[in-house]
Write a structure and sequence with these properties.
Strand content: 15-25%
Strand order of the largest sheet: 3-2-1-4-5
Distance between the termini: 73 Å
């Protein structure tokens, strides 16, 4: 990539520390190029306030704010949830958002005739891979600028110094600068005291948790909710029809109040290192639990077990930035087939960080109380003798042969 050819750059812009200093840095290092900021709205709410003014004040020519919330939920979150995809206890909040944002980023770059796309991901993280693989899918020949792989800045403290020197307003300080990622599905916290795995997260400290409260501070009385699904997709909460996006937002409220969905994990990043993070996913945690409970009624044994196996692969694909791949699409097709009968109602009890199943029903339920009962039924228990003889035949033969050869 010849820097002299770069006249117009589209920047993935959040208004956070990284992307705020990238605007002046691009202009200083890429021949005073035009910088067009693009923010993908995936539900980060208040983080979008004042973004246009800030972007322009720091040197951007314009700001696009793309409303991706419906697309993010329907095309990324729900397919991942239906797959039961979980990466090391992490519900893939950042991982699912990146390909969605990158797709929107490319659309603006093509519309604006940009010479390059820029992102603020570090060379240590997973997001650089997620953004760039998605960009390669939609614009295979588009040059990509990643300042963290070029500049001399080595830490968040040095980033803050650069921002102060360039009069860039910041909402953080050196003492409160957790690295965070927020959308309608989750909020992540990394850095500062969390870098020492021996430190307990300050869950009860005011301002640490943003989507809910610590289980200690949750109500002393349980909250009951019901969720209705049709073919694996949530369609109603407490009997009220809603879109999947509306349901997630409502579940975030009720889940947050009850201390649901807070995890502290050390995960294996794609680039090879381990990283510690605290995640808040109140609504998503409830949704996964309810969906899993309904599947336990509606899926036959072999389908359920095969689906559990592929869910690991699905999660790794999403985590590793491989959303736009033939394998992920093929796995989604398999998942969609398994969901044809995942329709019904799930009742849950939320209490101090716990999700307790309180009832499940479905017109497609494969559970038969007449067969499973401990009381009298039409099941002929004598049938099991022949089954056990055939099922255990290899074990019996092996034992006889072993006895002969002692």
């Amino acid at each position: 990539m010849n820097k002299n050819d770069i006249k117009k750059v589209v920047l993935a812009y959040s208004g956070g520390l990284d992307t705020s200093i990238i605007i002046p840095w691009l202009k200083e290092n890429y021949n005073n190029c035009e910088v067009i900021a693009v923010s993908g709205n995936v539900g980060q709410a208040d983080e979008l306030e004042g973004l246009e003014e800030k972007a322009k004040k720091t040197g951007a020519s314009k700001l696009y704010v793309l409303d991706l919330t419906e697309e993010y939920v329907d095309d990324y979150i729900i397919p991942t949830m239906k797959a039961g995809a979980v990466y090391e206890d992490y519900l893939l909040g950042t991982s699912t958002a990146r390909p969605c944002i990158a797709k929107g980023l490319v659309s603006v770059a093509i519309k604006e005739g940009a010479d390059a796309i820029c992102h603020g991901c570090t060379g240590k993280g997973n997001d650089q891979v997620r953004f760039e693989l998605a960009i390669k899918h939609f614009a295979p020949n588009m040059p990509i600028i990643a300042p963290w792989r070029e500049w001399e800045i080595k830490s968040r403290d040095e980033e803050i110094e650069y921002a102060e020197a360039h009069n860039i307003p910041l909402k953080i300080t050196r003492e409160t600068s957790y690295s965070k990622d927020k959308n309608l599905w989750h909020l992540s916290h990394e850095g500062l005291d969390l870098e020492d795995t021996n430190n307990e997260p300050t869950y009860e400290k005011e301002g640490f948790l943003e989507m809910g409260v610590s289980p200690i501070d949750a109500p002393d009385e349980p909250t009951y909710i019901t969720l209705d699904f049709e073919q694996g997709v949530p369609v109603a909460l407490d009997g009220e029809k809603m879109t999947a996006k509306e349901i997630i937002l409502k579940l975030n409220e009720v889940g947050g109040k009850n201390g649901i969905g807070i995890i502290d994990i050390v995960e294996n990043r794609l680039v090879g290192m381990k990283c510690r993070g605290v995640y808040e996913t109140p609504g998503g945690t409830i949704l996964y639990k309810a969906h899993e409970a309904l599947e336990s009624l509606c899926l036959d044994k072999m389908t359920m077990h095969e689906k559990q196996r592929i869910s690991i692969t699905f999660a790794e694909l999403v985590y590793n930035g491989q959303w736009f791949t033939p394998l992920r699409e093929a796995l989604s097709a398999f998942v969609d087939k398994t969901q044809e009968t995942v329709t019904g109602t799930v009742k849950l009890k939320l209490y101090k960080g716990n999700i307790i199943k309180a009832g499940v029903s479905s017109p497609y339920s494969l559970y038969s109380d007449e067969l499973a009962t401990f009381g009298e039924s039409d099941y002929d228990q004598k049938d099991s003798a022949g089954f056990i003889n055939l099922y255990g035949l290899p074990i019996k033969v092996q034992a006889i042969v072993s006895e002969k050869n002692k």
